[in-house]
Amino acid sequence: MTFYLHCFFLAAFETWSHSGEYVQETREMVQMAPKKWRGRNATTVQELNPKTLASGLDDYPRASHPSKEEYHLDLRCWMALGSRVMDRLAHLYGDDKSKSKYTEEASALANFDDLVQLHWSENKKLLLKRVKLGIALQDVTYLLFTYPYHIHFVTKQKQNLYKGFFDYGLHSDKVKLVKKPVKGAPGQYVVERSVVNKPRLGFVEDVFGYNSLFPLMLRLIPHESEQLGHILDKLADPELLWTKYGLRSLSRTSPYYAARNTEHDPPYWRGYIWVNANYMVLSALKHYGSLSGSYQLKAQNIFSALKENLVSNMAKEFNRTGYIWENYDDKTGQGRGSHPFNGWSSLVLMVMSDNMDI
């Protein structure tokens, strides 16, 4: 078996090496070049948020207006993982040139300072929203005054809401699907997107979900960094991703949460619980929980609670229905989508056995 595995990885390394040279023709561009998924429809008026099918997170919200300026967090993280794999294979099967090339690339894509510069937001502009009066003064961090005559109370909770890792692009923070009458056809209508607020270039900060967790999931965050502590805090927040059944795919605070993408296209990666992403988060939590430091205990506690929630709910649903499901409802825990779904949802067995290395 070992011999056949060596043969497979040797052949794979040679193939992937040629593919990598084709995709990244100039190595100098690897280090800070933003990464962008292709294939988003910039001209559609039917979709609330144009899909990114190439990412595998089909309808997960990205910048509302696809443009050449946008770039995507999860793709950069996947490339960091891919380069790490290629570096390992190069040291097993490659020549000195290959070893040097892939070590340099892996180091560049794993550079945390670059990741923060490209994708971390400390922006407080989205906090300029009216907050109901009656907030206790001790909870108010500061006041903001904006035209015309608005006073905004910024609480500590809201101050942290839009800090995190995000995509970047041309984005409107308010779009909606509306019915429009068809000319010359009384009683008939089409459903199209209406852009209420003008899109602006910036981080897609009203979308916190699985995508924002990729630096955590792929272990790209240093274990003593402030960013790790912040992401762990957000993980355990029930208003965001935490449920008693597992981590939902999109925060309840996002305007895209549970939103249809078209008249006939229900939400998919907009709130439901997916086992593959929960597995990757658990794997990361186990990793960070093994490292001595400020966030070790917090990572361990979240790991234990998340594992219990995910496994117990899947077991309950299996006993109730006899199936492993594609995903699970974040409000009820009930299985939904395709079934039986014994692909990545069977990762629950790896979770139960504590075998969560990536």
Automatic annotation (TrEMBL):
Pfam families in UniProt: Glyco_hydro_63 (PF03200)
Membrane topology, from the record: Single-pass type II membrane protein
EC number(s) reported in the record: 3.2.1.106
InterPro entries referenced in this protein's UniProt entry, alphabetically: 6-hairpin_glycosidase_sf (IPR008928), 6hp_glycosidase-like_sf (IPR012341), Glyco_hydro_63_C (IPR031335), Glycoside_hydrolase_63 (IPR004888)
Signal peptide feature range: 1-19
One GO term (biological process): protein N-linked glycosylation
Keywords: Endoplasmic reticulum, Glycoprotein, Glycosidase, Hydrolase, Membrane, Signal, Signal-anchor, Transmembrane, Transmembrane helix
Broad class of the protein's primary localization: endoplasmic reticulum
GO MF annotations in UniProt: Glc3Man9GlcNAc2 oligosaccharide glucosidase activity
Annotated localization: Endoplasmic reticulum membrane
Recorded GO CC terms: endoplasmic reticulum membrane
Domain Glycosyl hydrolase family 63 C-terminal: 24-126, 162-353
Similarity annotation: Belongs to the glycosyl hydrolase 63 family.
Protein name listed in UniProt: mannosyl-oligosaccharide glucosidase
Biological source species: Necator americanus (Human hookworm)
Lineage, uppermost ranks: Eukaryota, Metazoa, Ecdysozoa, Nematoda, Chromadorea
